[in-house]
Amino acid sequence: MYAQQIVAVAPTTAAAVFPLHAPAVEGGLPMDVGQVMHFARGAEIFGQGEKADCLYRVVSGWVRTYRILRDGRRQIEGFHLAGEYFGIEGGATHRSAAEALGAATVQVVRRSTLNELAARRGDVAATLFHLAMLGLQRSREHIAMLSHKTACERVAGFLLDMAERADAAKGFELPMSRQDIADYLSLTIETVSRTLSQLQADGLIDIPRSRNIVLRDREALEDMCE
Amino acid sequence: MYAQQIVAVAPTTAAAVFPLHAPAVEGGLPMDVGQVMHFARGAEIFGQGEKADCLYRVVSGWVRTYRILRDGRRQIEGFHLAGEYFGIEGGATHRSAAEALGAATVQVVRRSTLNELAARRGDVAATLFHLAMLGLQRSREHIAMLSHKTACERVAGFLLDMAERADAAKGFELPMSRQDIADYLSLTIETVSRTLSQLQADGLIDIPRSRNIVLRDREALEDMCE
DNA sequence: CGAGATTTTGAAACCATTCAAGCGAGGTGG
DNA sequence: CCACCTCGCTTGAATGGTTTCAAAATCTCG
């Protein structure tokens, strides 16, 4: 029953199944599959160790994915905003958990649906592969950050990243707590706070309210991340 | 021209293209594609920034993959031994470089070959996806290690990992230098050396020669990695 | 306005780094 | 064969940045 469809797309998608150096995949997954769910602030979207049945995509709001390590510490893997995917796993269970930072809506697609879709449509398979590679790239950036950067460099880089993703020229709102930032950067909450205060004292940023950041000297911040 | 072959495998591979929770893929890639190349100790297999045209698989020996960071430091992403794949990239260029640790032989497969193969054979596409996810998992383990582990925990964990991969009950030979270990664990060479000495002084390991390690108290080492 | 949570600030302790020197094995040339 | 050199590794002492522990300040929400 699938054969017809497969024949139809076969020749053009031959190279797309493993598009290691394909141009950025346009669009993303089809929007008409899966269901949209709403989550309240702090609500768990999926838990560490749960069966990984679905793939997720942020529709609005922010989501954090994290792991609880053996020593009880929480390692935040990433913050995801509208349009970004999360919950991709290699194994049968989620290695990390996901929670809504504030109120958030999330598109949830069953893996079985994706499997079928990917089998029929080369562009979907390509997108899925692309997403996995994107995750790998981010992960490696994270390693580079953790390996030898000082607290100051980490915080500065984080602020620039947030500003860019929030598409803000100068001022923007942080959707996460200091503890979240600390667990993402692998610092303590005190060090994050101290570093932000220092950056403000140096005139690089301004902090009107604790979750509101204004970039005063973007260039200096960028130099810092070198 | 490919249509016939695709029709042939379509129904059974429908779920294999995106096998997020498929059982471990058996075997790996076909062995009859690509060519086998030999590299001398320290020889570059591919460089950072080069076009990522191929996928690689260690046939014998050890390979290290690494990145040079903006500050000039070297971050070793991993050590790869026989049977393991490396060189998978999301983009058009290699984000990391690869070198032979000692003399090594490596199977090199062109991406174009893989693309064609993956388009025809669902199990190949599945294996490629599986490899990407495996890399992601390793990457996240690396992050967990870097985030809050002490030098002692890192070195102990590294030794256990090496012992396991070398399939050694107790004693084994380290294929890499102290500098390599340091760049992998994000420590300095001095700290690695000191930590190894300390572990020996505590009776957990023995170091007959600098590259030869004997695990004396595996349990204590494992406790340390908690 | 009051209570709890979040954030900031301070001081002391700790761990890895840095800078510097010593050790030891392997290789070369006299 | 031994002196010598080099390179990788080890060890020591001092420095410095982050953490830890503690407390004050600020914000948020009922």
Give structural notes.
The structure is a homodimer of 226-residue chains. In chain A, β4 and β5 form a beta hairpin. Chain A is elongated, with a radius of gyration of 20 Å. The first copy, chain A, has 2 domains: 125 residues, Jelly Rolls; 77 residues, Arc Repressor Mutant, subunit A (Orthogonal Bundle), CATH 1.10.10.10. In chain A, strands 1-8-3-6 form a 4-stranded antiparallel β-sheet. In chain A, strands 2-7-4-5 form a 4-stranded antiparallel β-sheet. The first copy, chain A, has a 3-stranded antiparallel β-sheet with strand order 9-11-10. Chain A is 41% helix and 23% strand. With 226 residues, chain A is α+β, with helices and mostly antiparallel strands. The interface between A and B is large, with 60 and 61 residues. Chain A binds a DNA duplex (30 and 30 nucleotides) through α6.
